[in-house]
Design brief:
The protein has helices at 3-23, 58-70, 94-104, 121-131, 143-150, 167-177, 193-196, 215-218, 222-231, 241-250, and strands at residues 33-37, 45-50, 75-79, 111-116, 136-142, 178-183, 208-211. It is an alpha/beta fold. It starts with a helix and ends with a helix.
């Protein structure tokens, strides 16, 4: 059997395993995380990175590495979701996005990978506690997502699994059970973090840290990766080589 055929078989085996995990999830039942790869034991401080990973980029990898180093996170859980708070469709199926995480972090025992049934951070607390009851939960989030999470207009109310009176109650629930690291993305700088907080949310500031990134990494986006693939440009500088190889093998984003 050729090496290319062996790689395709490996990819298909990964996707079968992930499909089984996804099949156990329901967006209408209580929030659940189907774990594709678990940690050997609960860490004292667990970073939790819910994102689309469409695909995983070098910026994602650097956020993970720097968060582990600067904030002393012993392990990270990566959680693409069955649904998304803002997006209805993706260019890559969930099984492929999860598979890219598995191949990228294949040799890192401090990375857990799961698929979440619900898109909101507040709804993830309970299933995370079931798996990691003794760990301090620290969410990793890009600055763009953080702005949406604060939900100034309350547009997500009524969509959480747990009923909430208003967006402040949501944030009280979230920040009483977790901390958050906001990674500066795009034109955002950590010096502007306070500007995202208003009078109602400023009280949570002590639970929020900010992670600055070099300008070249801040500019990397999954959107740009997908654009380059469609136009036949190189993505070598934007994604890990294992992810680039997976995309080539599966023909994603073309």
């Amino acid at each position: 059997m050729s090496k290319a055929n062996e790689q395709m078989l490996d990819v298909e085996a990964l996707k079968v395993r992930i499909r089984r995990a996804i099949a156990a999830l329901s967006p209408t039942d209580a929030p659940t995380i189907a774990w594709i790869r678990r940690l050997q034991q609960p860490p004292p401080r667990l970073g939790v990175f819910p994102a689309s990973f469409n695909p995983l980029t070098r910026a994602h990898v650097e956020i993970i590495a720097r968060a582990r180093e600067h904030f002393h996170l012993e392990a990270i859980a990566l959680l693409p979701g069955l649904t998304n708070a803002d997006k209805r469709a993706y260019e890559a199926p969930l099984e492929d996005r999860a598979a890219m995480l598995l191949v990228a972090f294949e040799t890192d025992p401090a990375i857990a990978i799961g698929v979440a049934s619900h898109p909101f951070f507040a709804d993830l607390i309970r299933p995370l506690r079931r798996e990691y009851a003794t760990s301090e939960i620290v969410f990793l989030v890009g600055s763009d997502t953080f702005g949406r999470l604060l939900d100034r207009e309350g547009r997500y109310l009524g969509r959480y699994y747990t009923p909430y009176r208003d967006r402040v109650e949501v944030l009280e629930d979230l920040f009483s059970a977790s901390r958050m690291i906001v990674a500066a993305r795009g034109q955002f700088a950590c010096s502007a973090l306070e500007q995202l907080l208003d009078e109602e949310t400023a009280r949570f500031r002590s639970r929020i840290a900010c992670l600055e990134l070099p300008e070249d990494l801040k500019a990397i986006s999954a959107t740009e990766v997908r654009r380059r693939i469609r136009t036949g440009e190189s993505i070598a500088a934007l994604v890990p080589e294992s992810v680039a190889a997976y995309i080539r093998a599966t023909g994603l984003y073309r």
